[in-house]
Each structure stands twice: as C-alpha cells, then as structure tokens.
Amino acid sequence: MSNEELVKAALQARTGSYAPYSGFRVGAALLTPGGRVFTGCNVENASYGLTMCAERVAVGKAVSEGEREFVAIAVAGNGREKCLPCGACRQVLAEFAPDMAVIAVNEYGDYSVTRLNELLPQSFCLPSGK
Ligand code: THU
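Above: inputs. Below: predicted complex with tetrahydrodeoxyuridine.
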C-alpha cells in the first residue's frame, strides 16, 4: 500500500465525519504490517467532551478486530493546513506503534510524512513490572 493510497483512504473516511459543532471534518486511515487498512472519522457530540477523534476511532476498530501493530496512519482535515494528530491521539497511537509513520494530509490531498516519535518524544509509558 503506497502513501498515496493511504491518503486516499483517509480522504474517503473524512466524508463520513460527523462534525456539526466544529465543522472540522477529519478522516484517518491506519495501516497494519499485513496491509489491512482501518479507517475512522471524527464523531462529535452535543456534550462536546464526548467527541471521538478520527484516529482513535480507527485504532478502536483495528484493535477490536485483533490488530495491534501498525506501520502508518494518514490523517486528513479541513483546508490547506496538513492535519496532524492531537496530543491525546499521539499517546494512543504510541501505545501500539511508537515509531509509526504519520502522514499529515490537507483537504486537497497534499501530504507530508513524519514519524510518531518525532511528534511525541519521550512519551509516557508504565515502568515494566508496575
Ligand atoms: N479531531 C480529530 O478527529 N483528530 C485530531 O487529531 C484532532 C481533532 C477532531 C475533533 C473535533 O471533532 C474536531 O476535530 C475539532 O477539534
């Protein structure tokens, strides 16, 4: 699966976004080592704090289907700015794949690639034997 294909999947997932409050529509596409792709979109709520980010929807779908290893995620948002995962989503992604590629995508399909450990260096993890 190429970066371009993952970008396309994130843009497609974005069409499912439920964002009546912010108007900011996000789609994510998460790639496993075996080539499976799990998508997600943001799902907002009238009780704003219950909003689910697109990335965490994708992670939840993947993990609930038995996948725990990821090689890349593409995240697409509104406008010209390429959309990066929020801090909470970075932490959730780091739980499973601290070195995964993160592809930030704008509404028009332009993208740039970075790595999660650049976006969230020295992330929190429990000491072994906690
Ligand atoms: N959002 C995401 O889906 N992913 C992020 O990484 C950042 C923010 C959503 C949450 C909310 O529905 C909207 O974007 C504006 O914050």
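The pocket of tetrahydrodeoxyuridine is lined by residues 19, 22, 24, 26, 42, 44, 51, 53-55, 85-86, 89 (CB under 6 Å).
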